[in-house]
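Title: Comparing notes on inverse folding

I've been comparing how different people in this forum approach sequence design from structure. To keep things fair, I'm posting one structure and asking everyone to reply with a full sequence. Here's the target:
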């Protein structure tokens, strides 16, 4: 149980990130940003796969985000980009999501005590890539 909640949080974090990239992808006009998002999606998918493998080893059933959360994300993206599809605006949206994801991971690590080292390392790996992605995306705020 101690590992289950954190693994589910990591899994849902990566699923939300990949969904937001896929929902946003048709709205990209900047090819550099499009390319960056595809690269980042690959990183999230790698973490997601590691999470699935770890869950299987620990006999933990992962839960995806529920339909309501997915619908809220999709709706939010579509409303937010209705009139502004600039690279700067899209970068802002991704930065907000990245910060939210990173904060929730820090909170989850603080909340879940006595977790296995491999689960903790996976959460920390996701935090590291979230912070790397933040730095990559913020360049587009100037455009």
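Reply #1:
Here's my take.
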């Amino acid at each position: 149980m101690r590992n289950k909640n954190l693994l589910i949080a990591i899994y849902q974090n990566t699923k939300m990130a990949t969904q937001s990239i896929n929902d946003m992808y048709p709205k990209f006009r900047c090819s550099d940003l499009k390319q960056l998002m595809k690269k980042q999606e690959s990183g999230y998918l790698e973490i997601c796969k590691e999470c699935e493998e770890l869950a299987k080893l620990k006999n933990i059933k992962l839960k995806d985000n529920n339909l309501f959360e997915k619908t809220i994300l999709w709706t939010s993206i579509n409303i937010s980009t209705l009139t502004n599809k600039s690279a700067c605006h899209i970068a802002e949206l991704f930065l907000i999501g990245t910060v939210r994801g990173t904060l929730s991971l820090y909170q989850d690590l603080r909340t879940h005590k006595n977790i296995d080292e491999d689960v903790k390392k996976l959460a920390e790996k996701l935090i590291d890539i979230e912070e790397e992605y933040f730095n990559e995306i913020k360049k587009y705020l100037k455009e």
